[in-house]
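Bench log, entry 3. Co-assembly request; chain sequences pasted below exactly as received.
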Amino acid sequence: MTSLSDRTGVSHRIGALARGFAFGAVSLAALGLASQPARAETRGYAVSWFYMAAESQKDDCPDGTNDLSEVMARKILVQMGKTPAEIEKLFIDFPNNMYGTLYMRGKVNGKPVNIYANPTAEPDPNIKTVKGHVAYGFDLDGKDGPNDFVDPQTGAKGVDDMLYRALGCFITQRASGGQRPTYPAIQWDTTRDQMPAWIVEVSGIERDAAGKIKDGDVKLGVYRATAPVTRNAAGDPQSDMSFTVDTNPRMQNVVHATMKNGTLTSDPFEFYMVQDPFGVAEYHFKKTQIRLTLNDDGTAKGVLGGYQPWLPIYEGFALGGAVNELNLSVDAPGIYYALKKLADFDPDKDGQNQSISSSYWIEAVPAFITHPNADKTSMVVGPVKLAQGHE
Amino acid sequence: MRRLAMCGAAAMLGFVGLAGSAMAEDAAGPAAMRRLTQEQYRQIINDVFGPTVTLGGRFEPDVRDAGLLAVGASQVSVTAAGLEQYDRMARSIAAQVVDEQHRALLVPCKPAAADAADDACAKTFLSKVGRLLFRRPLTQKEVASSVTAAHDAATKTGSFYNGVGLALAGFLEAPEFLFRQEVVEADPDHAGQYRLNAYSKASRLSFFLWNAAPDPELLAAAESGEINKPDGLKKQVDRLMASPRLEIGVRAFFSDMLAFDGFGTLAKDTSLYPKFTSQVLRDAQEQTMRTIVDHLLVQNADYRDLFTTRKTFMTPLLASIYKVQASFPEGVLNPWVAYEYPANAEQAGILTEASFVGLHSQPGRSSATVRGKALREVMLCQKVPDPPGNVNFNLVQDTNNPNFKTARQRLEAHRSEATCAGCHKIMDPVGLSMENFDTIGGFRTTENGAMIDSSGELDGAKFTNVIGLGKAVHDNPAATACIVNRVYQFGVGHKPTKSEAAWMTQTLAANFKTGGYKFTALLKDIATSDTFYRTTAPQTGALDTPHSKLASGQ
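Structure output for the full assembly:
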């Protein structure tokens, strides 16, 4: 590992003092650095949250959202041919027998099968899907079609996010106003502690005399670390931790990006990342784009969009089986059918698309990143603002 | 001892207690009776019975006097509630020692019958254990009494082991165990003068260097009188100092001097400082201990450099708080790694570690005043008076006042009150130089958006930041005088007498300086000195205690 001073040419604490640059040029003058040539800056982050993006609208689901779990379960049981008395007994004895009954509701050749392993063993329940046109993300295919969205943050049209269209009428997948959708947030929050951290590095940042990030070219790297994120006393990811990059070549996502007004937008690229089977075991996005705003308080937030295989998304729901269905008010086979129908990329030989456009929020806290056996480090810049004005 | 004699407008430093060089070669202080500290109690039980015998219960709170718990230990007794706790622990320990898991190892003989008394075996066990617990051989009367107790209990309960367990519990709650009772004898080599007897000498030495009771070899040196011969004492000191257990003693001393007992009640507002966790609290103490042990014992470096060294140790959480980058081994829970700050970093020395700036802060904000006071009292042995009772702290505590964004601005306004100005002139210029560290030790450059000015002044030495403060402490003669004072007091357990103070100045401090301020040399200088074991005349009748007659076997 190389020391910060070796890399930046300025002292670590001068680097730290530069955290105040965003708040005034006085700092530059006071340090006598104003006349020095601008140096490229590298900032490191640990991904604190990664979850399906949603800006749910009232008109997303004109026929209402999908049924809550009890209503959904009763309908399923009726379709299975259960009598009212049998259904009541299952509810009275809940959870005894309920989960098992729902598990084995599929039929293959007249015999009951595990529906989650055989989602087509029941007819398509035709879950309600989003009809609205507001969603975060990117125009991945260069077209503005009838199923496309408008990004509420950028105003961009032609946004492709069929994943939200498929799932956005389940209440546990909906969110707006900066909130995180319930289940995607739970998935991430649960897996984050037990998987190596995702880390982000932005290099080539330049600032003007006032400390504002200049527009121009930067390099974006997204890697997996060798250690997990640590929680602080509030249960949130701890900032300013040191991470080492996992050298596994599968998780080296490096791409050119363009910085404008403090927000970078990457060129399209392929993105690989291992997560945890509780969510999606492995992400593989094609035509990926990342938009990331580097905040003055040292954090970063943005959106990742791309096409990802839809089957692993279903598997994330199916692994939890009936427990997931009843706790989250989701219909797993219904999700299978919806994802399959709304998939919009990467057709197989039969014309069935294997991937679906999707968008995810990325939230990140400042972190130090070390590349093993490489003369390269990241550092935190920008003061970490805590509550009530305490730096 | 150097004290701040007054805090008037002039805020002058006064010096009390250093005057006088007479009697330096005859320096002596009173013998002490000190209650075992919690750590000493734990260490003794561990040493005598092994780590598988566990302790439960709570201890009596230790008391700090003259800057040290070691001195306060001679001021305390045992309350009724405390005695209950000692009794509970004693019974628990004794029960474990004689249980089926431990008895074969810890009871050196096997009774003729497990369901009946066996006085011979009980005597063997109790004499051996009693010698280690009382730090001296038992008197014949004590042996007889404990064997009788074991016999009676064994007969009533139908169990030999219950009997010796009960007698053992009696040892563990006896004053002779709970208190370090120093016994004085006339010095045969210096007519009219007094010294600790051999066993008390062994105890003082062992607790000084190991924070533990004498081991069998040291007790043997006391029993043979070897410890009273210069060569014999030097041999034992060399042995104790060569042992890895010296680190335990050094840690105990610095934990006491740096007031780490304060971590037991340290609280931070985690809604404002969510990085502060119980693990951080432990790491902060351990960081400073590792820094000290490495610097003073492993590197045998200049004590003063503790205030300027860029070398320390990090855990992932500490690195996060300090906002520095470090590499940690994979797959290790809470790993420690050696770390060195860059040469131009604004962080160096133990004053910039969370154990100091975090311990000496308020729960929700830093405190230049508390830090300044702590630095003067802990590191320089100066006494800063407590504030008067009618001080209005509102202005200082209001960190959201838009007119006073930084601590410096708030304190300047506070100092406009004449009653406050005097003492704050002593504390604030020191403490404000540590304002780049928030209440948990996190590095910062601004407060409420305003740049922090960390310039300051210590006893005439001016500096621009905390690095300068470290150098100022490094160069301040009070810092080295203070450590000499504290180490000696830690060993003897009392405030130095006038003659001892003179000896410390003329001999210890001078040797410390000449030797390049090596801490181990200071320890050895004290431990091998005659003064360390010399006492003032005992109170009338003190020499008639049974313990003073042990050497003759009465």
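The radius of gyration of chain B is 26 Å. Chain B touches chain A through 39 residues (CB under 8 Å).
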